[in-house]
Amino acid sequence: GQNIDQPTEMTATEGAIVQINCTYQTSGFNGLFWYQQHAGEAPTFLSYNVLDGLEEKGRFSSFLSRSKGYSYLLLKELQMKDSASYLCAAPYSGGGADGLTFGKGTHLIIQP
Amino acid sequence: DSGVTQTPKHLITATGQRVTLRCSPRSGDLSVYWYQQSLDQGLQFLIQYYNGEERAKGNILERFSAQQFPDLHSELNLSSLELGDSALYFCASSPRDSYNEQFFGPGTRLTVL
Question: Model confidence over B65-80: pLDDT tens digits?
């Protein structure tokens, strides 16, 4: 498996910007995923980065630095519905054809 | 709605028992993944099937087994259940066997008493 670390909890204000960091140690890198999970619901896909740099998708952007083993998810113009857990994930064995190793997730609380 | 279905939604059983969880992937998806989510361990990969064949194993206990049928639906069998097996079990599917977006079903909440 892989080793993935992210903060347990973050708090931000509605309308603001928040950055959720993720560091990873993997054996054979094959990309990094971000998922969103509301309490009691299924995770939903947000982004997949395989090359260094920033990828923007609406209010959400994801950044990757392979040399530093680092990624972040940037959420802009925060809305109350963005209150959820954000999970950083990498392919389980790094060798293809496998599931994902997830971090413990960052619980994001949005305050009015 | 991801297009992945799981049954049952909730399951309550006793220690030592055996249960079967069922998953139907999105139409056209060949890969099925099983995950276990508990409060202390987070979301953990158990096993993957691709077009009927076992493709990868994660942290799956020997008491657990899975299979994927010709119509691509999958079943996860949990036996000799223990209190610690209480968790949310998710199934996910994807079109190919690696490095692609996985679509998660709504999950089965298993409670072992």
Answer: 999 999 999 999 999 9
